[in-house]
Write a structure and sequence with these properties.
It is globular, with a radius of gyration of 27 Å. The longest helix is centred in the middle third of the chain and has 26 residues. The protein is of the alpha+beta class. The chain contains 18 helices and 39 strands.
Length: 795
């Protein structure tokens, strides 16, 4: 469970990430000049909330619908540009911490690593006979980044620490702290949108943009420390603890950033002083205790590792890839590590790069991309026993819905709430595109409310927390459903359809060679609305909401009238309501397969023909793709219960991508195991981990399937601590490709259905047999009691 390297990081995608949900750092590990690139999760461009709603969209909507009804798709594409709003803002880097050492000399026995079992990154090397060690971690309990420096010889540590930032800033030194204070841009254009002044700063004294402070303190055990305008100087020390804390003027998604720096500076100083009052061992133990309580919930063993002990991770990727079961385990747990590091209680949700970004104009603004990527970030949260890490996204959805109510009314004249393709820290809910500069194939997509609502329901499905469902999830789901009921309208055949409608980022080609993105009733739209209505109806039933009986009936009636899915001329599940040709048959998005994963509409038992058509669609897409696209395909092939094909996709993902790679259509991983779109996006890491869990346990179809997609290459192994819907913990072991034993831990109790390929012979709890019934071939059912664990054994 270590990422290991025998040289320091020469590129950002070789550096190692640490994080506590709010603060993040990329650690490079150079002996002579250590570099930590720093982030804080509320540091965004912009001057606060912006009303990006477009009152003209209502009028354009009627014209676009008329054009689409007449089959004039290219014209509808152009006309729909009039429905867009402004681009949203970008996630910003905070700055850099540099430690320049004065030891010089020839470096020997160098190693750096990131230990996933304790979330500590280490650097160790020798110069002459002196061994130098560094330990670095981001502490959630203390809210700071901790850097421990040690030398094996007394007084051998001599270095200077310096803070820097890409933003306008000033550095200040007091008798105890080194710190910088800076400002963010008032506006940053997306990296794909080119204007003469894409980054705009205000006056440092009067700007309305975000302000920030980074503060460094030192705890000496011997030696001396001095501070001046050049930095923090440490001389003749043997062991030193540096602590970094940061704060921004963010006051909430619905408020502009604070104009004064005094409050944030005092908060930052207090946090730093509290951390400095503790010994390094106290800070370290608090960090480990907090982190391991989450990380150690899940264990995975896929069999013997191909690589030798201590083999550098970059060489391991290049030499073995997915043939090394131990490397697959490492990448699986790395996804869990990254979610813990980038999404904790009180933090912002993990964005397109988690919390790690060095660019003023990061790829795709490093925002929350809501047509797949933000959702993929959290697919692993419930199945991989990190439900608490889901909470930042769930809170964000609530904030987004607040803004989305105004967008629904202003842009479309609809009830409820709506949001589109992109979100930022200010929870912009209007479609982006700079009022017509964007492409409707991605900008004009009012379905993120429906997709995000699935996360609200899934959190309930995995926890069975009715208070949460009643007070938080259902009210937001209800309003998302109200929007969809108003957005739907009846076509000439009596079906309910959406119009305009897109299949995100993928265009179609009509029989008369029109190429466009906007049409009617895409399969993804219909699947998302089916999912939202189905979940909302179940929520009404669970909560026994008599006051919503009529709404329940309305949703149930709408479900019956939704335009049905269709099978096209290639035997594929159609992506659009007409059997058009794909602009790109190998397109990275597989939006029309939402009903397979992460949805539950299409199953082998319930909808066999559409299930097979969906599989045919995935075959046609091929096994290539960007990093996150490969991760989605891993999840899909797991749902199709094809373990060997799933492993092939894992093999495609575990390809080493060089830093300067320019192929945007072939994903993989960088040397530090970050997902390569390329460039870096974290969603592929999270999607991969979710996919591996899905290979071992599935629970979307009203039963818990054990080892549904186990590949031949993993004949022996075990997993402990996965979660299933129904508030159930699942652990299991297998030998020679067959289930050996499983444990089911019932958190709330109730009926439990288990599907296996083997015949289950015994179910017992506390050593006593438990009666069960065989429902169908391969499926048994038994009753559980809250707090009890049940052991299942096969032949």
């Amino acid at each position: 469970m270590k990422l290991r390297y025998q040289s320091y990081a020469k590129a950002w995608t070789e550096a190692l990430p640490i994080g506590n949900g709010r603060l993040g750092a990329m650690v490079f590990g150079e002996p002579e000049v250590e570099h930590l690139q720093l982030n804080e999760d509320t540091l965004w461009s912009g001057r606060g909330p912006v009303d990006g709603n477009n009152p003209n969209a209502k009028h354009v909507l009627a014209e676009v619908r008329e054009l689409l009804a007449e089959g004039r798709y290219e014209e509808a594409d152009k006309k729909s540009k009039g429905m867009m709003g402004p681009y949203n803002q970008s996630y910003m880097p905070l700055g850099d911490l540099y430690l320049k050492f004065l030891h010089g000399g020839v470096v020997r026995a160098y190693e750096r690593n990131l230990d996933l079992t304790n979330a500590i990154t280490q650097v160790e090397y020798r110069i002459g006979d002196i061994v130098y060690k560094r330990e670095m971690f981001a502490s959630f309990p203390d809210g700071v980044i901790v850097i421990r420096l040690e030398a094996s010889a007394p007084g051998a540590l001599n270095f200077t620490a310096r803070l820097d930032s890409p933003h306008p800033y000033r550095t200040i030194q007091t008798a105890e702290h080194l710190f910088l204070q800076g400002i963010c841009p008032e506006h940053v254009d997306p990296n794909y949108y080119n204007r003469d002044e894409p980054v705009l700063y205000g006056d440092p004294e009067t700007t309305e943009a975000m302000r920030f402070e980074g503060r460094l303190g030192v705890r000496l055990e011997d030696g001396a420390a001095t501070l001046d305008h050049d930095g923090l100087h440490i001389r003749k020390a043997t062991a030193v603890t540096l602590i970094f804390s940061a704060e921004t003027s963010f006051q909430g998604f619905d408020k502009p950033p604070a104009r004064e720096i005094g409050d944030l500076s005092s908060t930052n100083e207090e946090r730093l002083e509290q951390a400095l009052s503790k010994s390094y061992e106290q800070l370290r133990q608090a960090h480990i205790q907090d982190y391991t309580a989450l990380f150690h919930r899940v264990e995975l063993n896929l069999g013997a590792s191909e690589a030798s002990e201590g083999m550098p991770t970059d060489r391991r990727i290049k030499q073995y890839g997915a043939k090394d079961a131990g490397l697959v385990e490492l990448l699986f747990q790395y996804g869990r590590y990254l979610l813990i590091a980038s999404s904790r209680a009180g933090s912002q949700p993990a964005n397109l790069q988690g919390i790690w970004n060095k660019e003023l104009r990061p790829p795709w603004s490093s925002n929350l991309t809501l047509n797949i990527n933000a959702e993929m970030n959290y697919w692993l949260a419930e199945t991989c026993h990190l439900s608490e890490c889901h909470e930042p996204l769930l809170g964000y959805i609530q904030n987004l819905s607040t803004n989305g109510r105004k967008t629904a009314e202003t842009n479309y004249g609809c009830r409820g709430w709506v949001a589109h393709h992109n979100g930022d820290i200010w929870c912009q809910s209007a479609p982006v595109g700079d009022y017509g500069q964007g492409d409707p194939v991605w900008a004009l997509w009012p379905m993120s409310g429906a997709w995000l609502s699935q996360h609200l329901w899934e959190h309930y499905a995995f926890t069975k927390n009715e208070t949460y469902l009643r007070e938080h999830a259902y009210p937001i789901m209800r309003e998302a459903a109200l929007f969809c009921l108003d957005w739907l309208h009846t076509d000439e055949n009596g079906h309910l359809i959406t119009s305009p409608s897109t299949s995100p980022e993928h265009k179609f080609v009509t029989a008369d060679r029109q190429k466009a993105g906007v049409s009617q009733a895409t399969t993804m739209d219909m699947s998302l609305i089916w999912d939202l209505f189905t979940n909302s109806i179940e929520a009404v039933d669970v909560l026994k909401r008599a006051e919503d009986a009529s709404l329940r009936d309305e949703m149930a009636a709408a479900l019956e009238k939704l335009k049905p899915m269709q099978i096209g001329k290639h035997g594929q599940l159609q992506e659009w309501s007409v059997d058009w040709e794909d602009e790109d048959v190998h397109h990275r998005h597989v939006s029309h397969l939402f009903g397979i994963y992460p949805g539950r509409q299409l199953t082998e038992q319930g909808t066999p023909e559409l299930y097979q058509a969906a599989r045919n669609s995935l075959e046609r897409r091929g096994d290539g793709g960007t990093g996150w696209s490969l991760a989605w395909k891993i999840c899909l092939w797991a749902r199709f219960q094809d373990g060997n094909r799933t492993l092939q996709l894992i093999s495609n993902l575990l390809q080493l991508v060089e830093e300067d790679a320019t192929n945007y259509h072939r994903g993989g991983v960088y040397a530090n195991l970050f997902d390569a779109h390329p460039p870096f996006q974290i969603d592929g890491n999270f999607g991969f981990t979710a996919g591996v869990a899905e290979m071992l346990v599935q629970s979307h179809a009203g039963e818990i399937a054990l080892l549904p997609a186990l590949p031949d290459a993993w004949p022996n192994g075990y997993v402990k601590g996965l979660r299933a819907r129904g508030a159930i913990g699942v652990s299991l072991s297998w030998e020679s490709g067959a289930l050996k034993e499983a444990e089911v831990e019932a958190q709330v109790g109730g009926s439990c259905r288990i599907r296996t390929k083997e015949i289950l012979l015994t179910v017992e709890s506390d050593g006593e047999p438990v009666p069960f019934e065989r429902v169908t071939e391969g499926v048994i059912r038994f009753d559980t009691e809250a707090g009890r664990t049940y052991k299942l054994r096969s032949v």
